[in-house]
Write a structure and sequence with these properties.
The protein has one domain. It is mainly α and 109 residues long. It is 88% helix and 0% strand.
């Protein structure tokens, strides 16, 4: 987690998992089995991770000067159940291209 993108990707994965746990496990436990405690704790964790995700998105936006479209994609990804994982795949490619570009610049120098 050395770069803003890698930190954003990591937080995104945790946020995505917490969202799936909330939707797939905690909510059914609450409404089907009358066990609201799961939503309380998983929802709380997801809320904290969502805030961290938005902070990481702001940080990566400022450092890499992301366009409004990329920021909107990041926000939209956080609202869709599998969105963070799809975005992560695209960010991984971007990170790999950036690493290759830096590697080539070091070879030239």
């Amino acid at each position: 987690m050395k770069t803003p993108i890698s930190r954003f990707r990591t937080v995104g994965i945790y946020e995505g998992v917490s969202y799936l746990l909330l939707l797939g496990i905690a909510m059914p436990l609450k409404y089907m089995f009358d066990m609201p405690l799961a939503v309380k704790y998983v929802g709380w964790a997801h809320g904290v991770l969502f805030v961290l995700y938005m902070v990481a998105l702001l940080h990566v936006t400022l450092v890499h000067r992301w366009s409004v479209v990329k920021v909107a994609a990041g926000v939209l990804a956080s609202l869709l159940p599998f969105g963070p994982f799809i975005l992560d795949k695209k960010l991984l490619r971007e990170e790999e291209l950036e690493a290759k570009h830096k590697s080539k610049q070091k070879q030239v120098a």
